Amino acid sequence: MPKPLKRSFFERSTLKVAPELLGKSIVIQSKKRKNKTGLIVEVEAYTNNDPACHAARGKTPRNEVMFGPAGFSYVYFIYGMYFCLNFITEKKDIPGAILIRALEIPDEDNRIASGPGKLCRYLKITKDHNKLDCCNSSSPLIVTESRLLKNDFSIVQSKRIGISQGANFPWRWYIKDNPSVSKP
DNA sequence: GACCGGATCCGT
DNA sequence: CGGATCCGGTCT
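Above: the input entities. Below: the structure tokens describing the complete assembly.
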């Protein structure tokens, strides 16, 4: 059984945690089916006092989990057909989240999870995966260390994609030259 | 109760 | 570059 990253990993500054998620593994655990894994190759940070953050205007039913403890999932529905997956950072009551933008999937086409909507489609992540405690080893959704990618990659930092407010913050990180990044 | 735009993706 | 497709947030 894979060992999830500890809450203390997530319970830090969003801007520190985000690039450190690169190279980690997302694992979808199921008793009935074989586990599915994907390597995180692209992320974006959304922080407190960030106009692009869903929590920018305070707590609502949708973003409530962002005000809770770190290490939980935040999954939301967008454009009438896609879901996006985030992990919550920072201490309780301080909103912060990291959008997972692309995964490299072992033994699959490079582009099968090369975007936030595509990776949820591939992993069948829906609103049912919202508010899961990903630090609990029995959670259907966890993040683990990975042996597949070690430290032999370089990280590129750039502006975030697809937003208008806060568009100038350079809070997107991805693995250089990785073929599964959303916009290569 | 209505309106509107969105942390996207795909085909043209 | 436009269309798909629908929910949450905001205003009335």
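Note for the figure: Residues 57, 60-62, 76-81 of chain A lie near DNA strand C (CB under 10 Å from a C1').
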